[in-house]
Write a structure and sequence with these properties.
Radius of gyration: 17 Å
Number of helices: 7
Structural class: alpha/beta
Strand order of the largest sheet: 3-6-9-12-14-15
CATH superfamily of the largest domain: Hexapeptide repeat proteins
Distance between the termini: 27 Å
Largest sheet: 6 strands, mixed
Strand content: 15-25%
CATH architecture of the largest domain: 3 Solenoid
Helix content: 25-40%
CATH class of the largest domain: Mainly Beta
Order of helices and strands: HHHHHHEEEEEEEEEEEEEEEH
Number of strands: 15
CATH topology of the largest domain: UDP N-Acetylglucosamine Acyltransferase, domain 1
Low-confidence stretches: none
Shape: globular
Number of domains: 2
C-alpha cells in the first residue's frame, strides 16, 4: 500500500472531484470501484478513498469510467487528465447504471441506456445502427470483440460470448454467442455464472 500513498499526490484533483460529487453520484462511483475490486479481496476493508485511489492507479480504464461519471464537470476532467491520463482507446456515452466495469483499454460503449453491473471486455463496440442504440438490462457481460448495435434490447442476466455480433433482441437469463448470435445456454443451467455478472 505504501506505493499507493507515495503516488497519491497524482490523484489529488481526482479526490477533489470525487468529494465534489453529490452523494448519489458518489455512491455510483463507489459501486463502480466495488466492481473493479471484486477480484481484489485485500482491498475489501480499506476506506472508500483508498479504494478509489487504488483503482485510479491500477486500472487506467477506471479513469475513463470516473471521467464519464463526472462528465458535466469538464474543467475538473481536464485537470484530472493532466496527472492521471485516461486510456485513449475507451469511449463511453449514453445512460449507464452503477457498476460499470471496462476491462481493457480498447472499447466503444454508447448504449441508449444500460442498467447496473455492465461488464465490458476488450474490443467491444456498442453503438448505433440507423440512428438507434441498444438498450441493455442489469447484470450483462459482453465479452471480447463483440459488436452490439441497433435498436435492440438485451435483457437482464445475460452473457454475450467473445466475437459475437448482436443485431437482435436477447431475452433475459441466457448465454449467447456467435455470428449471428444465438442462445447457447440458459443461465439457470450454470448458476455459478450469476456471480460473474452481479
Amino acid at each position: 500500500m505504501m506505493h499507493l500513498f507515495l503516488r497519491q499526490w497524482r490523484f489529488a484533483i481526482n479526490d477533489l472531484a470525487y468529494f465534489m460529487c453529490k452523494k448519489p453520484l458518489r455512491d455510483t462511483v463507489d459501486h463502480d470501484v466495488s466492481r473493479y475490486l471484486h477480484w481484489t479481496p485485500k482491498m475489501k476493508n480499506e476506506s472508500k478513498l483508498t479504494r478509489f485511489n487504488y483503482c485510479l492507479y491500477h486500472y487506467v480504464e477506471f479513469r475513463n469510467v470516473f471521467y464519464f461519471r463526472i462528465r458535466r464537470h469538464r474543467f475538473l476532467i481536464g485537470l484530472c487528465n493532466l496527472f492521471s491520463k485516461a486510456a485513449d482507446g475507451v469511449e463511453i456515452g449514453g445512460d449507464i447504471g452503477e457498476g460499470l466495469y471496462v476491462s481493457h483499454r480498447h472499447a466503444v460503449i454508447f448504449p441508449e441506456k444500460a442498467g447496473k453491473n455492465l461488464r465490458i471486455g476488450p474490443g467491444v463496440v456498442i453503438g448505433k445502427n440507423r440512428g438507434k442504440s441498444p438498450r441493455i438490462g442489469d447484470n450483462v457481460f459482453i465479452a471480447a470483440n463483440s459488436v452490439v448495435v441497433g435498436d435492440i434490447h438485451i435483457g437482464d442476466n445475460v452473457i454475450i460470448g467473445a466475437g459475437s455480433i448482436v443485431t437482435k433482441d436477447l431475452p433475459s437469463d441466457g448465454v449467447y454467442a456467435g455470428n449471428p448470435v444465438k442462445l447457447i445456454r440458459r443461465m439457470e443451467d450454470e448458476p455459478e455464472w450469476y456471480a460473474e455478472i452481479q
